[in-house]
Amino acid sequence: MFKTFPKGGIHPPENKLTADKPTVILPVPAQVTVPVSQHIGAPATPVVEKGVAVRAGQLIAQAKGFVSANIHSPVSGKVSKIDTVVDTTGYKQTAIVIDVEGDEWVETVDRSTGLLKEITLTREQIIERCQQCGLVGLGGATFPTHIKLTVPAGKKCDTVIINGVECEPYLTSDHRLMLEKGAEVLTGVSIIKKALGVESVIIGIEANKPDAISNLTELAKGFQGITVQPLKVKYPQGGEKQLIKACTGREVPSGGLPLDVGVVVQNVGTAFAVYEAVQKNKPLVERVVTVTGKSVKNPGNFQVRIGTPVSALIEAAGGMPDDTGKVINGGPMMGKALAITDVPVTKGTSGIILFPAEASKRAEVLPCIRCGKCSSACAMGLEPWLISVLGQKAMYETAEQERITDCMECGACAYTCPAKRPLLDYIRLGKSTVIRLARERITK
Amino acid sequence: MSNILNVSPSPHQQSAETTRKLMYGVVIALLPALAASIWFFGMGAIIVTLVSVLACVATEYLIQKFILKTKPSISDGSAVVTGLLLAFNVPSNLPVYIIIIGAIVSIGVAKMTFGGIGNNPFNPALVGRVFLLISFPVQMTSWPLPQGFNTGYADAVTGATPLAIMSEGIKNGETVSALMEKVPTHMQLFYGYMGGSLGEIAAAALILGGIYLVWRKIITWHIPVTILLTVAAFTGILWGVDPTKYADPLFHLLTGGLMLGAIYMATDYVTSPMTAKGMIIYGIGIGIITVLIRVWGAYPEGVSFAILIMNAFVPLLNKYIKPKRFGKEVKHG
User: Fold this and answer.
1) How far is B11 from A238, CA to CA, in rounded Å?
2) CB-CB: which of B116, B274, B327 is closest to A367?
3) Is the dihedral of CA A255, A260, A263, A266 positive or negative?
4) Å from A421 to nearest chain B CA?
5) Is B2 an interface residue toward A (CB < 8 Å)?
6) Which helix (H) or strand (E) holds B171?
7) Sheet holding A77-86, edge to edge
8) Which residues pair with A301 in a beta bridge?
9) Are A34 and A79 in contact (CB under 8 A)?
10) Using a CB-CB distance cutoff of 8 angstroms, which residues of chain A are in contact with residue B60?
11) Is B155 inside any structural domain?
12) What is the ipTM of this complex?
């Protein structure tokens, strides 16, 4: 029987157009732009200067403090400038621009392709290696991995959940990874298991990826303590709290972390990155990105170097279709629309979706008919119709009591609304203000 | 690469469900009951339904166009639903001018004065119906009897509804078993062979439409099932206490406006609670008030009043009955 989370959820059209497209390795571009902030936390500090020659895998920006991540050069070449650029979030930030020359890697990186299954590093060494290699969560939140692998004093972790859900429509990069690099992913999972000192790992995969489920189930027989848990297809099952509930029945408290119920969640992409970092000493300089859309000529999954322009990815998929009206970085439910395609791929870029013009505009907003479909869709048990109005009318105190900060912005409410109300826009507005006010209260 | 890209916050896709589709879904669900009415009442059912729908839509259009001076939104289908439901709640020989007054009260007073779709506290069709019942008590309670397809309109043979026969008879001291001889059998009631409002008679057709509504996910089971179970339980207890004084639960379920009310009127989005728990409390309230009015009230039928009374509690239910939140609340900060 497929498990799932009990409350709310929707089932948007899956549109996994690229599920059977093997990952294609893209050639290194002529120039890469590497932002110094590709993670949650403080931006890294550049440690190279203009004109310096760098090699692939070389540290080019040093993490600033504990909640931060190192940035490595994804290519070999010369630093042409350190400049302010617009990134995929639409904000400006510092980036290191490198003109590519050849493809020289630093010697410490093991570039062989053979599977290294035996884990020789100790727990502390594993965590240190993840930190050195600039690993962040590749599911989208880009939280530095070494922090998640460090259980603070007083907390206990007994279960690791690996997120192979990929519940966002269109995206297939994790799916392909589970098919093509299953053994590496499972080795990565074993490393995470060792680092956290837990006995049991659950890999949650939705039932629309039967090939990935059977592949990993078969491979998991060669590993200890790893079970694959098939899940019913339901959005937002990839949300950390929903996935934990589905796999273990535990409920993370409001405002709490997975560790409050003894769980750490890592994405399958992260598990693969952990494998490469720990077994091959390879920093996070590449990732798989799905480029897709109904009018796209050659939609596919592409392995690219970080810093490659999004426009190059679109070219690789057959160019931007004439009817394109929107380019989304990420999934259609939670991704961000790009204003320009001349922005670099970062560690958190899981997909690029091109929407035709007619699908890129919102429908006319009609009055709320109080049907309650938004409340039924909310996986957090909130009342989107209410908290969105509270956000709109600036009634922040009531919004806080109605637990607006529990909202994970999955968009199920706005998706399901028959009157096409921009529920999430106003919830975001209210939520960000409520969080700001709460912070001010603490500092006072 | 000269495309100008659209930038808006997520989510970037919306479901295919729209207000209009939901409203026309309700219209589709009402078609079997309409067909049954035309079968039993003939021409009258057609005339009343057409006049009511047209009058409701026209009232909304004229108010939006000339009084509110906003873009008319009659194409959303909500006025059509109100018109159908108003027609379903009146006798099939009601004079045209009375139907038009009902439509003006439903749309003009009960809906548009509050701001139109989504803002009315009371079910518009029921406000119109109760207004007519109080203003035109004679015309509103002369029920045509079913007689196969009847081409006449005002000259229909009229008589009392089964509920009225039962209520009057019990007051006059007759026993229920004697009265049961005077009303149609339960099977006839199920198919709709009885006197009554235009659309309320055919329980079978109404249930069929209700199943469609649940299957199409336009409504959930909570409100109709709770109302019907409450009525069945309450009248079942009374029946168990004294079967000579109280009619059996099945009789109550199949007569009057209960099926129409429970499946189509009480489930109106705007005037019903938004959480499952709230819906259940609301349904229990409607069931209890309906039985209280039917058994002890001045009117033989009480579904309309019961729904309107519980409509008034909906804002309260929405305020205090909350969905179960995900995760315990922990105090922090």
Assistant:
1) 15
2) B116
3) positive
4) 10
5) no
6) helix B162-171
7) A31-35, A92-100, A77-86, A53-54
8) A290
9) no
10) none
11) no
12) 0.90
**What is the value of pTM for the model shown?**
0.91
For residue A25, the cross-strand partners are A303
Residue A75: which CATH number?
Answer: 2.40.50.100
CATH code, A268: 3.40.50.11540
Q: What is the pLDDT of residue B259?
A: 95
- Structural domain of residue A298, as residue ranges? 286-360
DSSP label of A89: T
Q: Which two tokens stand for residue B96?
A: 């045209």
Give the phi and the psi of residue B125 in degrees, each rounded to 5.
Answer: -60, -35
Tell me the percentage of chain A whose pLDDT exceeds 90.
Answer: 89
Neighbours of B8 (CB within 10 A): 14
Tokens found for residue A255: 């405002």
Find, in chain A, the residue whose alpha carbon is nearest to that of B7.
A337
> Is B327 in contact with A241 (Cβ distance < 8 A)?
yes
Say if residue B181's pLDDT is above 90.
no
Contact A338 B7 (CB under 8 A): yes
CB pairs under 8 A between A and B: 172
From the list B269, B267, B214, the residue with the least C-alpha distance to B76 is B269
Q: What are phi and psi of A83, to 5 degrees?
A: -140, 170
Rounded to a whole number, what is the distance in Å from the CA of B193 to chain A's nearest CA?
34
Contacts of B275 in chain A (CB under 8 A): 372, 375, 383
Give the gap in angstroms from C-alpha B86 to the nearest C-alpha of chain A. 19
Residues A295, A276, single domain; the answer is no
Structurally, chain B folds into a number of domains equal to 2
Q: How far apart are CA A330 and CA A328, in angstroms?
A: 6
Within this chain, do residues B135 and B167 fall inside the same structural domain, yes or no? no
Domain, as residue range, for B104: 19-140
The torsion angles phi and psi of B325, rounded to 5 degrees, stand at -75, 155
C-alpha–C-alpha distance, residues A129 and A58, integer Å: 14
| For residues B223-242, average pLDDT | 96
β-strand pairing of A59-62 with A45-46: antiparallel
One domain for residues B191 and B291: yes
For the packed helices A182-196 and A210-220, what is the interaxial angle rounded to 10 degrees? 60
Whether A108 contacts A57, CB under 8 Å? yes
- Residue B333's pLDDT is 41
For residue A127 the two structure tokens come to 């965590």
Q: Is the same domain home to A35 and A168?
A: no
Task: Give per-residue pLDDT as tens, A116-140.
Answer: 888 899 999 999 999 999 999 998 7
- Considering Cα of A325, then A330, then A334, then A339, what sign does the dihedral take? negative
Residue B156, in any domain of the structure: no
Per-residue pLDDT of A223-255, as tens digits, reads 999 999 999 999 999 999 999 999 999 999 998
C-beta atoms of B330 and A428 within 8 A: no
Q: Residue A398 and residue A406: Cα distance in Å, rounded?
A: 14
Confidence class for position B4, pLDDT limits 50, 70, 90: confident
> pLDDT tens digits for A295-318?
999 999 999 999 999 999 999 999
